[in-house]
Amino acid sequence: MDIESLRNYCINKKGVTEGLPFGPDMLVFKVMGKMFALASLDAIPLSVNLKCDPEKAISLREANENNILPGYHMNKQHWNTVILDGHLKPDFVFQLLDDSYHLVISGLTKKQQQELKDLDE
């Protein structure tokens, strides 16, 4: 998967914005102001940090030990670094992105969740 595929998938989700708050080499995707994906633009191969349920994070790391690692520079209990070197199928990566997005949404206040729901209506 390349950065354009990743970016297009993320930016087309409801309520998502992108930015470079940590410098020119870290593209951050937020939903309602909360981070759900951070892509390292200078990493070869491309990698992305994604939020994950702690129990699921451990099982994903065990099943994909070369491509899913504890989140680099993140809370390693709640974040994974996913290495996008072609070993993980795009549909699987998109599911991980969806999981991260929905996990962040579930942590929003009821007011923020309503604001998100009201977007584009």
UniProtKB/TrEMBL annotation:
Pfam families: YjbR
Superkingdom of the source species: Bacteria
Keywords from the UniProt entry: DNA-binding
PANTHER family linked to this entry: CYTOPLASMIC PROTEIN, CYTOPLASMIC PROTEIN-RELATED
The protein's name in its UniProt record: MmcQ/YjbR family DNA-binding protein
GO MF: DNA binding
Signal peptide start and end residues: none
InterPro entries: YjbR, YjbR-like_sf, YjbR/MT2646/Rv2570-like
Coiled coil start-end: none
